[in-house]
Amino acid sequence: MEQTPQIPKEKFKMIHEDDNQEQEKIGTPSLTYLQDVRRRLLSNKVATVCMVLLSIIVLISVFAPIVAPHNPNEQKVEYANLPPKIGEANIPGFNGMQKRGGKVVNAYKEVGAPKGTTYLLGTDYLGRDLLSRIIYGTRLSLIVAILATLVDLIIGLPYGIISGWKGGRTDIVLQRIIEIISSIPNLIVVILMMIILKPGLASIVIAIALTDWVTMARLIRAQTFQLKEQEYILAARTLGESSTKIATKHLIPNLSSTIIIQTMFTIPNAIFFEAFLSFIGIGIPAPNASLGTLLSDGQKAFRFLPYQMWAPAIVLSIIMIATNLLGDGLRDAFDPQSSD
Amino acid sequence: MTKYILKRILYLFLTLFIIASITFFLMKLLPGTPFTNQNRLSHEQLAIVKAQYGLDQPVLIQYLRYMGGLFQGNLGTSFQFNNEPVTQLIGQRLAPSMQIGAQAMIVGTVLGILLGAFAAIRKNTWVDTLATFISILGLSIPSFVLAVLLQFYLAFKWHIYPVALWDNFQSSVLPTLALAALPLGNVARFMRTEMVDVMSSDYIELAKSKGNSSWQVVTKHALRNSLIPVVTIIGPMAVSVMTGSMVVENIFSIPGIGEQFVKSITTNDYPTIMGLTIFYSFLLILVILIVDILYGFIDPRIRLGNGGKE
């Protein structure tokens, strides 16, 4: 056996404890899950822009009575179909000029409006201010979407939790019910409900929520199935917590990411259905405006008054795009593995 | 597999039966009357008209009669549109709807596959960004908004296509485009995710290392394997195309079933509403069923997922 070579003692050096600690130190502050989510969301530029945009739209809708320059339902027939005009600024398309019978005229002068009269986005066929109508229409669309999502949650969350938590026969029965409901096309349910209920906000909300909760319930159920196998749930059960308490204290907080993501996809869906129903004429009844009715009115008049179609089309598209993109961003933020 | 298909077909009829029953009783709950000039009718006349439509019978008898008729393919007679049988009404209007629906699905799916594939191959370049942008637009902008814009520019301003008419292929272009946006966006997005996954898999690495050109790798290996999951979203997409077609048909005045449905709703024509509801549901469920069965044939794992039994 060969002898290991002797290493001289002076080659050894004492390592100070402090040196080691310096390296082991955690440089960045530790983040909680929610902080992490927020960081990921904010680092996503597209989602951030959409969030800011949507916040502005929501703020404008909330403060609609203050922000809107005119009463949205006030008719001034003598000022009907005036083109957009921004003060006295001479911006093409926004200077109050209109083509009439082959020549361009100042439409505001033609109807004898006093000098200061401006309608930023023009007026409709009854002389109602289009901008105010769009602001109130957006407000209505958002109210419908938020209420529908809430109803969705109120039905879908307990349904999903009960189905997933109880399992067994309860689960089978509840899932069969969902299967039958989801095999009836959404649109058919919504339209049937709209025919039977009186037209109005409440019926639209009910009609949309009736079809949308199924997806929510399904997702919650699947998630609950996974969660209930976790150790902390087992611990809570062993300690004798009641099922309701486990659901509210342990399940719902852990389901929150699923809920938030699904909610962000329910909102554009609800906005779409509301606009759809209003567009075909069985949604929000006159004189109230929604983006759907405004677009429908604009489409009828677009031959000569294209500005009446543009504004609602753009607003509706922006809301739809922004909510969809924010939904994507939230999903990526909550669940980084879902993105590729 | 046969057992699975039979089970699904049984479910289809069960669902249709439930839908038909619900629709029937909901229609009975409706307030008002389908006869527009009821006030002008005398009691005797009203009784005669009601008897003619079988509305003088108890609701249960009416229900049994309706369901009986349904089994023989009879959906009743329309109250409004010249007393035509509903089946005939649907039959006359089926072709245009089917045409634009099918065109939109084909155009949307093919373009979506191409777009998604390009985005995946050129991942994280401007091609990818552009493709993602297009698919988000297609997914988000409602088909009726798109229809209105297309009608304004391509038809009214630039006179490329007719504004609203239904005679030749030309008139089907705009509605097809408006409806194709959603499937395009959906497929492109799905395809991109799938293809990115496939492109980083071992067998693609192997194919590359064997010296195949990248074109060969993409067409022979990547594209095919990414396509399989895309089949699953065809069903839900067909549903949304049909939804969109209802209002798109209205915008372009196409004599299809969607336009008829909207018209019957606004005129309270119950038998037509019921008939079309059942017919729509049938179509949608059938499409989903066919897609599921097709998928089972393409990807045998689906069958295994069903308890591992045939």
TrEMBL record, chain A:
Membrane topology, as annotated: Multi-pass membrane protein
The name this protein goes by in its record: ABC transporter permease
Gene3D superfamilies found in the cross-reference section: MetI-like
Keyword Cell membrane (UniProt): yes
InterPro entries attached to this UniProt entry: BP-dependent_transpt_permease, MetI-like, MetI-like_sf, OppC_N
Native species: Companilactobacillus mishanensis
Top-rank taxon, per record: Bacteria
PANTHER family: OLIGOPEPTIDE TRANSPORT SYSTEM PERMEASE PROTEIN AMID, OLIGOPEPTIDE TRANSPORT SYSTEM PERMEASE PROTEIN APPC
Entry's family note: Belongs to the binding-protein-dependent transport system permease family. OppBC subfamily.
TrEMBL record, chain B:
InterPro entries (alphabetical): BPD_transp_1_N (IPR045621), MetI-like (IPR000515), MetI-like_sf (IPR035906)
Subcellular location: Cell membrane
Domain (ABC transmembrane type-1) ranges: 94-295
Bilayer topology term: Multi-pass membrane protein
Any Pfam family the entry gives: BPD_transp_1_N
Gene3D superfamilies on file: MetI-like
Keyword set includes Transport: yes
Chain segments annotated as transmembrane: 9-30, 100-121, 133-153, 173-191, 227-248, 278-298
Xref: PROSITE patterns: ABC_TM1
Domain of life from the UniProt record: Bacteria
Keywords, ordered alphabetically: Cell membrane, Membrane, Transmembrane, Transmembrane helix, Transport
Protein family per UniProt: Belongs to the binding-protein-dependent transport system permease family.
Protein name, as recorded: ABC transporter permease
